[in-house]
Amino acid sequence: MSFYPGVRFLTSAAQPAQFVPDDGREVAFAGRSNAGKSSAINTIVGRKALARTSRTPGRTQLVNFFELAPDQRLVDLPGYGYANVPDRIRRQWGALMDAYFVGRASLTGLFLIMDVRRPLTPFDRQMLAWADASGCPVHALLTKADKLPKGQGLRALADVRRELGTAAGAQLFSALKKTGAETARDALEAFLQPAGPSGPRTAPAEP
Ligand SMILES: Nc1nc2c(ncn2[C@@H]2O[C@H](COP(=O)(O)OP(=O)(O)O)[C@@H](O)[C@H]2O)c(=O)[nH]1
Ligand SMILES: [Mg+2]
User: Fold this and answer.
1) Distance from the CA of 82 to the CA of which of 117, 176, 199, 204 falls in 20 to 30 A?
2) Which of 34, 38, 39 to mutate to test the pocket of ligand 1 (most atoms within 8 A of CB)?
3) What is the pLDDT of residues 69-104, one digit of tens each?
4) Which contacts of 15-22 are long-range, i.e. CB under 8 A and separated by 24 or more positions?
5) 146 alpha carbon – ligand 1 mean position (Å)
């Protein structure tokens, strides 16, 4: 079952002009190729094949937009960090990400997907820097937690939390075992919900 009954694919953008209109609220998912990003999206949304999963990472640099509910979107950013990528493609990726992070007013949260066994690669740090520069809060998923004994997973989580400090939330996650799915969904929801009334509370009306 899907936690977002109205979820639907909107479009794939190869360049900024193809991004969907920048309104409502949008949460982006980024991660090293093969880290488990598509699997995490499918698990969190509760749809088996919303985002495509694969063993052989594709090289197409596309930003995939999904509508979760009216005015709420999930964005699957192109994977990064796989070997043997021509420089031209790497530059194209950088330009696309830069355009996305700099200009995206509706971006209210970033999910950073990292293999629990290989967290915080240089590319991940670049993502964190982009998010920080655009004032976008980050939630890190340490995926494939089922691949490590529990103690090792918890140590990896503690290490990542120590490094990130207040820069991001972090949790263990497994698409295979569904570990952490609910926590991740709560974090997604928190990013998608408009903040409560910001200014000072209005005093009760005088009689
Ligand atoms: N054991 C395990 N394997 C996973 C998990 N998540 C993804 N995978 C596998 O890792 C590979 C890459 O996953 P995918 O979601 O396509 O990664 P992406 O390239 O980041 O989108 C696939 O073979 C998945 O089946 C997980 O939580 N546990
Ligand atoms: Mg993928």
Assistant:
1) 176
2) 39
3) 999 999 999 988 776 778 888 888 889 999 999 989
4) 15/96, 16/96, 16/99, 16/100, 16/103, 19/63, 19/65, 19/100, 19/104, 20/65, 20/73, 22/103, 22/104, 22/105, 22/106
5) 11
